[in-house]
């Protein structure tokens, strides 16, 4: 007789997959964990596949063969995120978010674990069929978003520093021009923090002219890294001509009028169109 | 007849709790979600309670009454983390982590989603019975750890900046003395990022003399915040007299000899003693 009942095993497997998204787990693991036969483990996975799809919790993918196994993709279609992005859009429209100087206060959202988890899931969704070795961001506000992207894809996070007080050995620095403010800034990345030739996804919280993302792209060249894409939580509508063109955003800030207390922000088209 | 089979509901509930740790969910939520009677929802929770404890996945806590419900604490006893901390300790002992100047390279661990998730869980474990309103950290390397602490407790993260390029409205700055290097540094926090009178847990990646944590404590006074405790991933054994005394760490760095390629690091006593 099996040590655990089927519903116990299924509940446990859901928990294991939830904690290890995008990680290939072979059937032997479950056979040993529960002390069950291969056929039973296989049946469990089949049942769970249906459950996960029924509740729109993402999907289980089976890779056949000797090096095969099952992995859990914790995100489903973009449509299931619509109520969430609508809710965040309304929060972003609150005029009290306008900070003198034309800034938008978003820290409360980005630093809220539940919200940033979902933002991270949305930003990696378009790249699920791409091979990605690391998520690269630049300090500071992009870090929580980037970590949740990294968690969803089960790849390491890489953090570019804005100063050169890097205490991680030799590093590469570049100067870049902040596109909207035309200031010269610098960013640095420790040599050992990114393997040569990695495929990377760039993540940040906010993009105006795209100077920071462009700087990140230049820095990536120093590491022979291939930039698969770039994603930000909010991009501005203007300037129309950005310094980069291959990027996605969750929200588009169309207009912000400090004196009139107006924030005009929309959900990006690719999300609305599904 | 119920729309979903019991094993389907149980698997779905596990997923919902996993995504919403430390969040009170009432039975009505599950009754509506699955279209089931209160007694059935109640039975489901009871079954799940046993499953979660059987597999050492943490625990489900039922709060009775009108404002009651069930919440999931995703961490169990500290003993279950021992194999993990042993594994990380071995990784930390690798002499190639020694960086000239007496620094220890840890970014690969802190920026790895699976590892930092568990470090975050361990650091909040001693504070589970305390009321905590926010996790406070200082940029940069503490952020991933602090976010995972915040996620486990389902409270907001607050990030103190090391420069004053704060674009989040009015802010409070303090100067503090980096304890080991005796340099004057400054840290800043936007007024609106932390409510007056909050109860906070301070989190950072590394602590030598404790100057940074002490600076954070001083800054918290400016917000009338109550510091419930402090936790770091690694503390050093020396100096013995730290600038703060109320802190916990996961690892203690006893000795590091650059010329001899020796890193002597141990798991903290409170973890070993369980």
From TrEMBL, chains A, B:
Gene3D superfamilies: 3.40.50.2020, Winged helix-like DNA-binding domain superfamily/Winged helix DNA-binding domain (1.10.10.10). Belongs to the purine/pyrimidine phosphoribosyltransferase family. PurR subfamily. Residues 113-262 form the Phosphoribosyltransferase domain. The lineage of its organism: Bacteria, Bacillati, Bacillota, Clostridia, Thermoanaerobacterales. Residues 5-74 form the Bacterial purine repressor N-terminal domain. The keyword Zinc-finger does not apply. This is Purine operon repressor. The keyword Membrane does not apply. Keywords: DNA-binding, Transcription, Transcription regulation. Homodimer. It comes from Thermoanaerobacter pentosaceus. Signal peptide: none annotated.
């Amino acid at each position: 007789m099996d040590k655990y009942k089927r519903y116990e095993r299924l509940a446990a497997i859901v928990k294991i997959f939830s904690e290890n998204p995008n990680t290939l787990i072979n059937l032997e693991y479950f056979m040993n964990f529960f002390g069950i036969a291969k056929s039973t483990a296989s049946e469990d996975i089949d049942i769970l596949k249906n459950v996960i799809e029924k509740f729109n919790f993402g999907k289980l993918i089976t890779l056949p063969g000797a090096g095969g196994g099952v992995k859990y993709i914790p995100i489903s279609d973009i449509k299931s995120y619509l109520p969430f992005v609508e809710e965040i859009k309304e929060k972003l429209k609150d005029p009290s978010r306008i900070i003198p100087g034309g800034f938008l206060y978003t820290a409360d959202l980005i630093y809220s674990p539940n919200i940033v988890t979902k933002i991270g899931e949305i930003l990696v969704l378009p790249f699920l069929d791409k091979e990605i070795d690391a998520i690269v961001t630049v300090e500071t506000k992009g870090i929580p978003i980037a970590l949740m992207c990294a968690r969803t894809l089960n790849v390491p996070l890489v953090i570019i520093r804005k100063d050169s007080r890097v205490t991680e050995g030799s590093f590469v620095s570049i100067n870049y021009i902040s596109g909207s403010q035309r200031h010269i800034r610098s960013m640095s990345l420790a040599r050992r923090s990114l393997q040569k030739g990695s495929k990377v996804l760039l993540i940040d919280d906010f993009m105006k002219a795209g100077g920071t993302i462009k700087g990140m792209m230049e820095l990536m060249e120093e590491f022979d890294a291939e930039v698969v894409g770039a994603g930000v939580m909010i991009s501005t509508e203007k300037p129309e001509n950005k310094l980069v063109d291959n990027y996605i955003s969750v929200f588009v800030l169309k207009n912000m009028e400090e004196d009139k207390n107006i924030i005009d922000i929309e959900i990006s088209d690719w999300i609305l169109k599904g």
